[in-house]
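writing this on my phone so excuse typos. first protein, seq and then structure
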Amino acid sequence: MSDPTSPLNALIVEDNRDLARLFSDLLEVLGCKADVEWNAIAGLEKADATRPDIIFCDISMPGEKNGFDVAREVRANPQLAHTWLIAVTGYDNQETCDRALAAGFDRVFPKPVKFAQMQAVLNDVRGKRRNGADGQQS
């Protein structure tokens, strides 16, 4: 984990480029340094290379892998053990939420993600970082 006073490093994995840019802009307003990747494979590579504090990941993406795959692979990587994972989904139902949490996501945010949700989770990550606790929420 990085210095508690430095900006949080966020990774956005989202195939909708307009939404990803908006998400990135909001995170930067909230004091984060944000990277964006457009698919799950690129997102996993970026996460491995940069070890972000938090990943916001769409669940449904075209291609070989989806957000559930991202969560499982991040959780299997010891280098990313402290990374918070936030599922972002247009499917706001209990089954999707349960699947996301089982795959390893810490929280599930329905689209459109609300500014207050983003602010609250970033405050939680910062609080864990300041306290020296492991990043993941239980």
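second protein below, same order as before
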Amino acid sequence: MADRWAPKPVQGIADGTVLYDGVCVICSAAFRFVAARDPEARFRFTAVQDPLGTRMAGLLGIDPVMPESNAVVIDGTAYMKSDAAIQVLARLPRYGWARHLRHVPKGLRDWVYDRIARNRYRLFGKTETCMIPGPELRRHVAREE
């Protein structure tokens, strides 16, 4: 059986679009972390709870009610779980070193990712609604094409 979380081609989602869980405190913190280090606004974020995010989740086989992965589209390919995190981090200024994390076996990387993802609400918290980005983050919000 093919790896459900392996990178896959995707159409209809703009390059640089990042899917995240908008009610997850650590996921929203990751959005702010990337946005603060992405001066060119190369990455645009959509919460899985938003219409674009729900559509993206459906295309990628991610449950929009209880998402088990984040995702990013780079050059027409969707990356999920630890692959997505590495793809984003490695493209930020001064974080190019992160591309070397690809050499850690994917099974191990995703095992760690899954442990954090499964316990994210208990460990970091959950909000009742998605974060509403302020003016400094709005240019990092994904829009339908």
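The longest strand covers residues 17-20. thats all i got for now
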